[in-house]
Amino acid sequence: MVLKELQNIFHIELDAIYGQHEVNSFFYLCTEHYLNIARIQLTLEPELAITKPETETFFKALEHLKQQKPIQYLLGETEFFGLPFKLNENVLIPRPETEELVDLIIRSHSEQSEASKLKILDIGTGSGCIAISLAKNLPNAEVYALDVSPDALKMAKQNAELNKVNAHFIEASILDETCHSALDAASKFDIIVSNPPYVRNLEKQEIKPNVLNNEPHLALFVEDDNPLLFYKAITAFAEKILKSKGQLYFEINQYLGEETKALLTNTNFEAVKLLKDLNGNNRMLKGKKV
Known about the structure:
The protein is an alpha/beta fold. It has helices at 3-18, 20-35, 39-44, 52-66, 71-75, 96-115, 129-137, 150-162, 178-183, 209-212, 229-241, 257-265; strands at residues 77-80, 83-86, 119-123, 142-147, 168-171, 189-194, 199-200, 221-222, 242-251, 269-276, 282-289. The protein is elongated, with a radius of gyration of 21 Å. The strands form three sheets. A seven-stranded mixed β-sheet has the order 5-4-3-6-9-11-10, with helices on both faces. The protein has a two-stranded antiparallel sheet with strand order 1-2.
Protein backbone atom coordinates (compact mmCIF):
# COMPACT_ATOMS: atom_id res chain seq x y z
CA MET A 1 0.00 0.00 0.00
CA VAL A 2 1.15 3.54 -0.75
CA LEU A 3 1.87 5.36 2.52
CA LYS A 4 -0.02 8.49 1.43
CA GLU A 5 -3.16 6.38 1.00
CA LEU A 6 -2.63 4.92 4.46
CA GLN A 7 -2.26 8.42 5.86
CA ASN A 8 -5.62 9.37 4.34
CA ILE A 9 -7.22 6.35 6.05
CA PHE A 10 -5.77 7.52 9.39
CA HIS A 11 -7.44 10.91 8.87
CA ILE A 12 -10.78 9.40 7.87
CA GLU A 13 -10.84 7.17 10.95
CA LEU A 14 -9.26 9.45 13.56
CA ASP A 15 -9.77 13.15 12.74
CA ALA A 16 -13.13 13.27 14.52
CA ILE A 17 -11.47 11.99 17.72
CA TYR A 18 -8.15 13.83 17.73
CA GLY A 19 -8.15 16.53 15.04
CA GLN A 20 -6.14 16.67 11.83
CA HIS A 21 -2.91 18.05 13.29
CA GLU A 22 -2.63 15.38 16.00
CA VAL A 23 -3.48 12.59 13.56
CA ASN A 24 -0.66 13.75 11.29
CA SER A 25 1.65 13.64 14.30
CA PHE A 26 0.52 10.08 15.12
CA PHE A 27 1.08 8.92 11.55
CA TYR A 28 4.60 10.34 11.32
CA LEU A 29 5.51 8.87 14.72
CA CYS A 30 4.37 5.48 13.43
CA THR A 31 6.33 5.75 10.18
CA GLU A 32 9.47 6.63 12.13
CA HIS A 33 8.95 3.91 14.73
CA TYR A 34 7.80 1.02 12.53
CA LEU A 35 9.58 1.84 9.27
CA ASN A 36 12.46 4.16 10.24
CA ILE A 37 11.15 6.57 7.61
CA ALA A 38 11.42 10.28 8.35
CA ARG A 39 8.62 12.73 7.62
CA ILE A 40 10.65 14.51 4.95
CA GLN A 41 11.05 11.24 3.02
CA LEU A 42 7.27 10.99 2.63
CA THR A 43 7.22 14.50 1.21
CA LEU A 44 10.02 13.72 -1.23
CA GLU A 45 8.60 10.31 -2.22
CA PRO A 46 4.78 10.62 -2.30
CA GLU A 47 4.40 7.21 -4.00
CA LEU A 48 6.42 5.36 -1.36
CA ALA A 49 4.80 1.98 -0.72
CA ILE A 50 5.08 -0.59 2.09
CA THR A 51 4.63 -4.36 2.30
CA LYS A 52 1.46 -6.17 3.37
CA PRO A 53 2.87 -7.13 6.84
CA GLU A 54 3.92 -3.51 7.38
CA THR A 55 0.46 -2.34 6.35
CA GLU A 56 -1.12 -4.75 8.84
CA THR A 57 1.06 -3.28 11.62
CA PHE A 58 -0.32 0.18 10.81
CA PHE A 59 -3.90 -1.07 10.84
CA LYS A 60 -3.35 -2.62 14.27
CA ALA A 61 -2.01 0.72 15.49
CA LEU A 62 -5.01 2.44 13.94
CA GLU A 63 -7.42 0.20 15.88
CA HIS A 64 -5.65 0.97 19.16
CA LEU A 65 -5.78 4.70 18.41
CA LYS A 66 -9.52 4.46 17.64
CA GLN A 67 -9.88 3.02 21.16
CA GLN A 68 -7.92 6.06 22.43
CA LYS A 69 -4.88 4.14 23.59
CA PRO A 70 -2.08 6.73 24.01
CA ILE A 71 0.42 6.72 21.15
CA GLN A 72 3.28 6.70 23.68
CA TYR A 73 2.11 3.39 25.17
CA LEU A 74 1.42 2.00 21.72
CA LEU A 75 4.97 2.70 20.58
CA GLY A 76 6.46 2.05 24.03
CA GLU A 77 8.52 5.23 23.95
CA THR A 78 8.45 9.01 24.11
CA GLU A 79 10.79 11.98 24.31
CA PHE A 80 11.23 14.14 27.41
CA PHE A 81 13.62 17.08 27.73
CA GLY A 82 15.32 15.95 24.52
CA LEU A 83 15.97 12.44 25.86
CA PRO A 84 14.42 9.08 24.87
CA PHE A 85 12.29 7.26 27.45
CA LYS A 86 10.73 3.80 27.36
CA LEU A 87 7.16 3.64 28.65
CA ASN A 88 4.43 1.19 29.57
CA GLU A 89 1.12 1.32 31.42
CA ASN A 90 2.89 1.20 34.81
CA VAL A 91 4.14 4.78 34.50
CA LEU A 92 2.64 8.14 33.61
CA ILE A 93 3.35 9.65 30.22
CA PRO A 94 5.67 12.64 30.86
CA ARG A 95 4.09 16.05 30.24
CA PRO A 96 5.53 19.33 28.85
CA GLU A 97 4.69 21.03 32.18
CA THR A 98 7.11 18.67 33.93
CA GLU A 99 9.81 19.64 31.43
CA GLU A 100 9.35 23.21 32.66
CA LEU A 101 9.97 22.04 36.23
CA VAL A 102 13.15 20.24 35.19
CA ASP A 103 14.33 23.30 33.28
CA LEU A 104 13.72 25.51 36.33
CA ILE A 105 15.91 23.26 38.50
CA ILE A 106 18.71 23.02 35.95
CA ARG A 107 18.82 26.78 35.38
CA SER A 108 18.85 27.41 39.12
CA HIS A 109 21.60 24.94 39.94
CA SER A 110 23.84 24.39 36.90
CA GLU A 111 26.63 26.65 38.20
CA GLN A 112 26.40 25.20 41.70
CA SER A 113 26.77 21.65 40.38
CA GLU A 114 30.15 22.49 38.87
CA ALA A 115 31.50 23.72 42.18
CA SER A 116 29.97 21.09 44.45
CA LYS A 117 28.40 17.67 44.16
CA LEU A 118 24.67 18.30 44.45
CA LYS A 119 22.59 15.59 46.09
CA ILE A 120 19.10 15.37 44.56
CA LEU A 121 16.05 13.30 45.51
CA ASP A 122 13.09 12.77 43.16
CA ILE A 123 10.02 11.48 45.03
CA GLY A 124 7.51 9.49 42.96
CA THR A 125 9.87 9.06 40.03
CA GLY A 126 7.64 6.95 37.76
CA SER A 127 9.43 6.55 34.43
CA GLY A 128 12.42 8.38 35.93
CA CYS A 129 11.98 11.33 33.59
CA ILE A 130 12.76 14.01 36.19
CA ALA A 131 15.63 12.20 37.92
CA ILE A 132 17.28 11.06 34.69
CA SER A 133 16.96 14.44 32.98
CA LEU A 134 18.55 16.11 36.01
CA ALA A 135 21.32 13.52 36.16
CA LYS A 136 22.01 14.04 32.44
CA ASN A 137 22.10 17.83 32.64
CA LEU A 138 23.75 18.17 36.07
CA PRO A 139 26.48 15.55 35.58
CA ASN A 140 28.21 16.25 38.88
CA ALA A 141 25.04 15.63 40.86
CA GLU A 142 24.28 12.48 42.84
CA VAL A 143 20.66 11.57 42.09
CA TYR A 144 18.26 9.41 44.11
CA ALA A 145 14.82 8.37 42.85
CA LEU A 146 12.05 6.94 45.02
CA ASP A 147 8.80 5.23 44.05
CA VAL A 148 6.30 2.92 45.74
CA SER A 149 5.76 0.87 42.56
CA PRO A 150 8.30 -1.87 41.74
CA ASP A 151 7.02 -1.93 38.15
CA ALA A 152 7.64 1.79 37.77
CA LEU A 153 11.13 1.45 39.21
CA LYS A 154 11.91 -1.34 36.76
CA MET A 155 11.04 1.02 33.91
CA ALA A 156 13.01 3.89 35.48
CA LYS A 157 16.11 1.70 35.75
CA GLN A 158 15.81 0.79 32.07
CA ASN A 159 15.59 4.47 31.19
CA ALA A 160 18.68 5.28 33.26
CA GLU A 161 20.60 2.64 31.29
CA LEU A 162 19.16 3.91 28.01
CA ASN A 163 20.35 7.45 28.76
CA LYS A 164 23.66 6.34 30.29
CA VAL A 165 23.21 7.99 33.67
CA ASN A 166 23.71 6.75 37.21
CA ALA A 167 20.97 7.06 39.82
CA HIS A 168 20.08 5.33 43.07
CA PHE A 169 16.59 3.81 42.88
CA ILE A 170 14.63 3.15 46.07
CA GLU A 171 11.34 1.30 46.50
CA ALA A 172 9.45 3.01 49.33
CA SER A 173 6.37 5.07 50.10
CA ILE A 174 6.68 8.68 51.19
CA LEU A 175 3.52 8.11 53.26
CA ASP A 176 5.23 5.77 55.75
CA GLU A 177 8.52 5.44 57.57
CA THR A 178 10.07 3.07 55.02
CA CYS A 179 11.40 5.98 52.99
CA HIS A 180 13.09 7.44 56.07
CA SER A 181 15.02 4.25 56.79
CA ALA A 182 15.73 3.67 53.10
CA LEU A 183 17.35 7.10 52.80
CA ASP A 184 19.19 7.21 56.14
CA ALA A 185 22.48 6.30 54.47
CA ALA A 186 22.07 9.05 51.90
CA SER A 187 22.39 11.80 54.55
CA LYS A 188 21.10 15.27 53.64
CA PHE A 189 19.94 16.54 50.25
CA ASP A 190 20.46 19.83 48.42
CA ILE A 191 17.32 19.42 46.29
CA ILE A 192 14.09 17.51 46.68
CA VAL A 193 11.70 17.48 43.73
CA SER A 194 8.34 15.79 43.30
CA ASN A 195 5.46 15.55 40.86
CA PRO A 196 3.13 13.54 43.12
CA PRO A 197 -0.50 12.49 42.51
CA TYR A 198 -2.62 15.63 42.65
CA VAL A 199 -5.75 15.23 40.52
CA ARG A 200 -8.88 15.13 42.70
CA ASN A 201 -11.59 12.60 41.91
CA LEU A 202 -13.96 15.53 41.32
CA GLU A 203 -11.69 16.60 38.45
CA LYS A 204 -11.94 13.27 36.61
CA GLN A 205 -14.57 14.77 34.31
CA GLU A 206 -11.85 17.08 32.94
CA ILE A 207 -9.55 14.16 32.10
CA LYS A 208 -9.56 12.87 28.53
CA PRO A 209 -10.54 9.19 28.07
CA ASN A 210 -7.11 8.27 26.65
CA VAL A 211 -5.60 9.31 30.00
CA LEU A 212 -8.38 8.14 32.30
CA ASN A 213 -8.64 4.67 30.76
CA ASN A 214 -4.92 3.97 30.33
CA GLU A 215 -2.58 5.79 32.70
CA PRO A 216 -2.02 4.46 36.25
CA HIS A 217 -4.54 5.97 38.68
CA LEU A 218 -2.07 5.36 41.53
CA ALA A 219 0.12 8.09 40.05
CA LEU A 220 -2.71 10.47 39.15
CA PHE A 221 -5.51 10.71 41.69
CA VAL A 222 -6.04 11.72 45.31
CA GLU A 223 -9.17 11.75 47.46
CA ASP A 224 -11.26 14.92 47.37
CA ASP A 225 -11.16 15.32 51.16
CA ASN A 226 -7.35 15.18 51.37
CA PRO A 227 -5.93 16.43 48.05
CA LEU A 228 -2.63 17.64 49.55
CA LEU A 229 -1.85 14.30 51.19
CA PHE A 230 1.44 13.80 49.36
CA TYR A 231 2.49 17.46 49.57
CA LYS A 232 2.07 17.43 53.34
CA ALA A 233 4.12 14.24 53.71
CA ILE A 234 6.87 15.44 51.35
CA THR A 235 7.10 18.87 52.98
CA ALA A 236 7.42 17.32 56.45
CA PHE A 237 10.02 14.88 55.12
CA ALA A 238 11.93 17.69 53.37
CA GLU A 239 12.11 19.65 56.62
CA LYS A 240 14.09 16.77 58.11
CA ILE A 241 16.26 15.66 55.21
CA LEU A 242 17.05 18.85 53.28
CA LYS A 243 20.27 20.67 54.08
CA SER A 244 20.05 24.22 55.39
CA LYS A 245 19.19 26.43 52.37
CA GLY A 246 18.22 23.26 50.48
CA GLN A 247 15.52 23.68 47.82
CA LEU A 248 12.14 21.97 47.54
CA TYR A 249 10.41 21.88 44.14
CA PHE A 250 6.87 20.70 43.37
CA GLU A 251 4.65 20.30 40.36
CA ILE A 252 1.17 21.15 41.62
CA ASN A 253 -2.57 21.10 40.93
CA GLN A 254 -3.34 24.44 39.27
CA TYR A 255 -6.54 24.78 41.32
CA LEU A 256 -4.74 24.36 44.66
CA GLY A 257 -1.81 26.74 44.21
CA GLU A 258 -2.34 28.94 47.25
CA GLU A 259 -3.23 26.01 49.50
CA THR A 260 -0.07 24.15 48.48
CA LYS A 261 2.04 27.28 48.89
CA ALA A 262 0.71 27.69 52.43
CA LEU A 263 2.17 24.30 53.37
CA LEU A 264 5.64 25.75 52.83
CA THR A 265 5.09 29.27 54.16
CA ASN A 266 3.58 27.85 57.36
CA THR A 267 6.57 25.59 57.96
CA ASN A 268 10.33 25.90 57.85
CA PHE A 269 10.66 27.38 54.35
CA GLU A 270 11.41 30.83 52.99
CA ALA A 271 11.57 32.47 49.53
CA VAL A 272 8.48 30.46 48.61
CA LYS A 273 7.32 31.14 45.04
CA LEU A 274 4.31 29.95 43.06
CA LEU A 275 5.19 29.80 39.35
CA LYS A 276 3.04 29.56 36.23
CA ASP A 277 3.59 27.23 33.28
CA LEU A 278 3.58 28.31 29.63
CA ASN A 279 -0.23 28.03 29.59
CA GLY A 280 -0.52 30.54 32.44
CA ASN A 281 -1.59 27.99 35.06
CA ASN A 282 -0.14 27.76 38.57
CA ARG A 283 2.00 24.66 38.07
CA MET A 284 5.26 24.90 40.02
CA LEU A 285 6.18 25.73 43.59
CA LYS A 286 9.61 26.21 45.10
CA GLY A 287 10.91 27.06 48.52
CA LYS A 288 14.17 27.18 50.47
CA LYS A 289 14.65 25.51 53.83
CA VAL A 290 15.44 28.08 56.51
